[in-house]
Protein backbone atom coordinates (compact mmCIF):
# COMPACT_ATOMS: atom_id res chain seq x y z
CA UNK A 1 0.00 0.00 0.00
CA UNK A 2 1.30 3.43 -0.92
CA UNK A 3 0.16 6.67 0.66
CA UNK A 4 1.16 10.31 0.78
CA UNK A 5 1.71 11.99 4.13
CA UNK A 6 1.59 15.78 4.45
CA UNK A 7 2.71 18.08 7.26
CA UNK A 8 1.20 21.40 8.33
CA UNK A 9 3.46 23.28 5.88
CA UNK A 10 2.18 21.27 2.90
CA UNK A 11 5.37 19.22 2.45
CA UNK A 12 4.61 15.68 1.27
CA UNK A 13 6.41 12.36 1.54
CA UNK A 14 5.52 8.93 0.23
CA UNK A 15 4.99 6.11 2.75
CA UNK A 16 4.80 2.40 1.98
CA UNK A 17 3.42 -0.63 3.79
CA UNK A 18 4.35 -4.15 2.65
CA UNK A 19 1.40 -6.40 1.81
CA UNK A 20 2.16 -8.68 4.76
CA UNK A 21 1.79 -5.72 7.17
CA UNK A 22 -1.48 -4.34 5.75
CA UNK A 23 -3.69 -5.87 8.47
CA UNK A 24 -1.55 -4.15 11.11
CA UNK A 25 -1.93 -0.63 9.64
CA UNK A 26 -5.00 -0.44 7.39
CA UNK A 27 -7.42 0.63 10.14
CA UNK A 28 -4.98 2.87 12.03
CA UNK A 29 -4.62 5.67 9.45
CA UNK A 30 -7.59 7.76 8.27
CA UNK A 31 -7.41 10.47 5.63
CA UNK A 32 -7.66 13.97 7.04
CA UNK A 33 -6.32 13.05 10.49
CA UNK A 34 -2.95 13.80 12.09
CA UNK A 35 -0.56 11.22 13.52
CA UNK A 36 2.87 10.80 15.04
CA UNK A 37 4.98 8.02 13.46
CA UNK A 38 7.79 6.31 15.37
CA UNK A 39 10.25 3.56 14.36
CA UNK A 40 10.09 3.44 10.56
CA UNK A 41 12.68 3.06 7.82
CA UNK A 42 13.78 5.97 5.58
CA UNK A 43 14.92 4.99 2.07
CA UNK A 44 15.67 6.72 -1.23
CA UNK A 45 12.57 7.52 -3.28
CA UNK A 46 13.50 6.05 -6.67
CA UNK A 47 11.81 4.33 -9.60
CA UNK A 48 8.85 5.13 -11.80
CA UNK A 49 5.41 6.31 -10.66
CA UNK A 50 6.53 8.04 -7.46
CA UNK A 51 3.78 9.83 -5.57
CA UNK A 52 5.96 12.74 -4.39
CA UNK A 53 9.12 14.53 -5.50
CA UNK A 54 10.64 14.15 -2.03
CA UNK A 55 14.08 12.49 -2.25
CA UNK A 56 13.15 9.98 0.49
CA UNK A 57 10.18 7.80 1.38
CA UNK A 58 9.09 6.05 4.56
CA UNK A 59 8.66 2.30 4.92
CA UNK A 60 6.44 1.31 7.81
CA UNK A 61 7.65 -1.79 9.64
CA UNK A 62 6.26 -4.26 12.15
CA UNK A 63 7.70 -2.13 14.98
CA UNK A 64 6.27 1.16 13.67
CA UNK A 65 4.12 2.94 16.24
CA UNK A 66 1.35 5.27 15.03
CA UNK A 67 -0.28 7.63 17.52
CA UNK A 68 -3.42 9.59 16.67
CA UNK A 69 -3.01 13.33 17.31
CA UNK A 70 -6.31 14.76 16.05
CA UNK A 71 -8.14 16.27 13.09
CA UNK A 72 -8.26 19.77 11.69
CA UNK A 73 -4.55 20.39 12.16
CA UNK A 74 -3.83 20.31 8.42
CA UNK A 75 -5.78 23.04 6.65
CA UNK A 76 -3.97 23.00 3.28
CA UNK A 77 -5.28 21.09 0.29
CA UNK A 78 -3.36 17.87 -0.32
CA UNK A 79 -3.71 18.33 -4.09
CA UNK A 80 -1.39 20.08 -6.54
CA UNK A 81 -3.57 20.33 -9.63
CA UNK A 82 -1.91 20.63 -13.03
CA UNK A 83 -3.55 22.15 -16.12
CA UNK A 84 -3.97 19.83 -19.10
CA UNK A 85 -1.94 22.11 -21.36
CA UNK A 86 1.02 21.82 -18.97
CA UNK A 87 0.75 18.03 -18.98
CA UNK A 88 0.73 17.80 -22.77
CA UNK A 89 3.80 19.99 -23.10
CA UNK A 90 5.98 18.52 -20.38
CA UNK A 91 5.17 15.01 -19.14
CA UNK A 92 7.48 13.57 -16.48
CA UNK A 93 6.63 9.86 -16.36
CA UNK A 94 8.34 9.35 -12.99
CA UNK A 95 5.77 11.24 -10.89
CA UNK A 96 2.04 10.98 -10.42
CA UNK A 97 0.06 14.19 -10.90
CA UNK A 98 -3.32 15.53 -9.75
CA UNK A 99 -5.88 16.46 -12.42
CA UNK A 100 -9.60 17.20 -12.53
CA UNK A 101 -11.73 16.16 -15.47
CA UNK A 102 -14.71 14.11 -16.57
CA UNK A 103 -13.87 10.51 -17.38
CA UNK A 104 -15.02 10.01 -20.98
CA UNK A 105 -13.50 6.62 -21.90
CA UNK A 106 -11.35 3.74 -20.61
CA UNK A 107 -9.01 1.88 -22.93
CA UNK A 108 -7.84 -1.72 -22.90
CA UNK A 109 -5.23 -3.05 -20.49
CA UNK A 110 -1.64 -2.33 -21.54
CA UNK A 111 1.83 -3.09 -20.23
CA UNK A 112 4.49 -0.40 -19.80
CA UNK A 113 8.08 -1.63 -19.52
CA UNK A 114 10.88 0.50 -18.10
CA UNK A 115 14.23 -0.74 -16.84
CA UNK A 116 13.03 -4.34 -17.22
CA UNK A 117 10.06 -3.72 -14.91
CA UNK A 118 6.58 -4.26 -16.34
CA UNK A 119 3.63 -2.21 -15.08
CA UNK A 120 0.03 -2.95 -16.11
CA UNK A 121 -2.24 0.03 -16.74
CA UNK A 122 -5.28 1.27 -18.64
CA UNK A 123 -5.38 4.48 -20.62
CA UNK A 124 -8.23 6.79 -19.63
CA UNK A 125 -9.55 9.85 -21.41
CA UNK A 126 -10.56 12.95 -19.47
CA UNK A 127 -12.68 15.79 -20.80
CA UNK A 128 -11.20 19.12 -19.75
CA UNK A 129 -13.31 21.66 -21.62
CA UNK A 130 -16.44 21.28 -19.54
UniProtKB/TrEMBL annotation:
Residues 1-67 form the Replication protein A 70 kDa DNA-binding subunit B/D first OB fold domain. It comes from the Eukaryota. InterPro entries: NA-bd_OB-fold, RFA1B/D_OB_1st. CDD domains: RPA1_DBD_A_like (cd04480). Gene3D superfamilies: Nucleic acid-binding proteins. This is Replication protein A 70 kDa DNA-binding subunit B/D first OB fold domain-containing protein. It comes from Vicia faba.
Amino acid sequence: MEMVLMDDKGDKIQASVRKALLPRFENKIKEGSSYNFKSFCVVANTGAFRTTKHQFKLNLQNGTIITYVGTGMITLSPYSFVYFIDILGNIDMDYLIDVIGILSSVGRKRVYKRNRVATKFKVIELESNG
